[in-house]
């Protein structure tokens, strides 16, 4: 069962990261091409603006879901340091639970929006596709982010209380230093 969750975890991370990178890359390239066409040749791709918006939207939401995995979202722990470590751990778990509930609700309401859009048969003006297709990002990305918030609940709950705040504060610095080769002494 552990191997299944490891593969599942890697799959979600790969999807989140790749959609974010491909979306932003294609959006920038498409916007650049459209600007060159407009200012150099006096023409433009009428559908490019709408597609660029959708690519950026998909990139941002999948990138945010990936951010939960890497622990790069902002967390302010200054008040938590005033409490005993066990109370601080409970607050961190509670904050991840609130995030999980919010993200799961957003995924559910995104799914409801997709159903409504399908029933109405609303079509995109420039791309001439059903509007529910680009809006699929809402239930999918928020479900991925909810999964990551749930994962953080589990990680914090099994972690020693005295390591919870230290882990939250140093996670980003440690990840950045590993990628850059620069090591910070934060202990």
Describe the 3D structure.
With 187 residues, the protein is mainly alpha-helical. Helix content is 75%, strand content 0%. The chain has five helices and no strands.
Essential attributes:
mainly alpha; single chain; disordered C terminus; 187 residues; elongated
Q: How confident is the prediction overall: mean pLDDT?
A: 84
Please provide the count of β strands: 0
Q: What's the multimeric state?
A: single chain
User: Terminal Cα separation, in Å?
Assistant: 36 Å
Computed CA radius of gyration, to the nearest angstrom: 20 Å
Helix content: over 70%
Counting helices, strands and paired strands, the structural category is mainly alpha
How many strands, which pairing sense, and closed or not: the largest β-sheet?
none
Secondary-structure element order, N to C: HHHHH
Residue fraction in strands: under 5%
Q: Determine the number of helices (DSSP H or I, runs of at least 4 residues).
A: 5
Number of domains: 1
* Gross geometry: elongated
Residue stretches low in confidence (pLDDT < 50, at least 5 long) are: 170-177, 182-187
State the gist of this model.
With 187 residues, this protein is an all-alpha fold.
Secondary structure layout plus pairing:
Blueprint lengths: L1 H40 L6 H23 L14 H36 L16 H22 L2 H20 L7
Helix pairs in contact: 1-2, 2-4, 3-4, 3-5
